[in-house]
Amino acid sequence: MQIDDETLMAFADGELDPATTTRVAATIDADPDLQARLRLFSESRNRLQAEAQDAFAQSSAQDAQLIARIRAASVVPANTAAATSGAVDISAATPGNINRRPLAAIAAALALALIGGGLWWQLGDSAGSARLDAAQVAALDNLPSGEAQALDEQTTLTMVASYRNGKDELCREFETHNATGMEIIVACRDRNDWSPRFAMDVEAATDGYVPAAGELEELDAFLANTQAGAPLTPEEEAAALAE
Amino acid sequence: MDAAFGETLIGLLPNLRRYAISLSRRADVADDLVQITVERALVNHASYDSGMRLEPWLFRILRNAYIDMTRRNRTQGTQLDVFEMPDIVSTDGAATVEARLMLHSALDAMETLPVEQRDILHLVCIEELSYAETAEVLGIPKGTVMSRLARARMALSEKLGIK
Fold first, then answer.
1. Does B99 touch chain A (CB under 8 A)?
2. How many CB pairs under 8 A join A and B?
């Protein structure tokens, strides 16, 4: 019987049905060339497996936090978001309504470098002099997190996440992108008016240097200072926006 | 969400991290990918079919998160699937020279392969997924898994001097 490479590999991996396995084994037994070729497949797998045992870092500083997060989710009766919406297609792109760190990673991936420390500002609870324009307010009122819309020909607004701060105000974080960089803004809703509370300019790097994730420290500090809660799920966000 | 799901998920954190490092080759990005995967798994756990093993389901989430991340990396320009263009691989002079140098560590040798080959080797040979589960993770037919995997194994063997 003719045995091609894929069959030989499937034999080495134990993926053949019993009858075929018996036939292939008999053929290999009688053919030294096939035995040598089989080693290509069995050896490559064995060696990878042996080395992988201790080669990869098995833990990370964030593990404790993740484990706590998972255990906390286990005791909540049922995740209402998943329970009401039923099966969710995991293959679809999921909105960025998750937390801060993915954004930091994406910023890194976009090859953006933070310029200086002087380009961000933080407002008090009363609205300051800075104003949101009408298009931004419309997006704050309507655009779900994870979605983007064009503000004008050069600029795109991407809604990142919604959350409640320590005063139970609804806050939303968004980015505006144009050719030269992006601005990250957090606005909170106070008696139906959106007021900007935080803004930071991020300029595109010119030399291709990619900063490590987690460089959005000012934003992290702002979120911590205002006791930002966990990002709302899409359903919670829709309900909060409808209030 | 039942506690068993959570505990299984916790038990698989090292596997997720290992796969994330294999894909991204960066510890910080791997941490982000694992975190995104955990969040998505918690939100979407209702769509997990408990008749299946959890590994392929989680690996698929992680891999999609990695693709989302690289898709947003517009500055890198168009990414080509080297696998769809075998000519490019076979005419790469540097690769030929490298193969002759004969690497001693199988993992080092795997590192020199294109991401598509690393990905499939990792899932089958390190995480020990079946061909069917791997096809599920990668979203390709089982026959394609087999042909890709066979070529990746041959390339690896050649670099390792296995004859």
1. no
2. 189
**Which residues have C-beta within 8 Å of that of residue B146, sequence separation ≥ 6?**
A6, A9, A10, B131
Confidence of residue A13 (pLDDT cuts 50, 70, 90): very high
**Rg of the Cα trace of chain A?**
27
Give the confidence band of A18 by pLDDT, cuts at 50, 70, 90: very high
Structural fold of domain B3-75: Rna Polymerase Sigma Factor; Chain: A (1.10.1740)
| More reliable by pLDDT, A161 or A102 | A161
**If you average pLDDT over every residue of chain B, what do you get?**
83
HSE on the CB side for A222, CA within 13 Å?
23
- Interface contact A74-B34, CB threshold 8 A: no
CATH of B82-160 given 1.10.10.10, 1.20.1640.10, 2.40.50.100, 1.10.3720.10: 1.10.10.10
- Cβ of residue A75 closer than 8 Å to a chain B Cβ: yes
Pair of tokens at residue B12: 């698989």
**Cβ atoms of A143 and A238 closer than 8 Å:** no
CA B78, B82, B88: angle at the middle one, nearest 5?
105
A15 touches chain B (CB under 8 A): yes
pTM higher than 0.80: no
A146: DSSP letter: T
Contact A105 B28 (CB under 8 A): yes
Closest-CA residue of B relative to A93 is: B68
Which value does ipTM take for this structure? Answer: 0.78
Give yes or no for B138 touching A (CB within 8 A): no
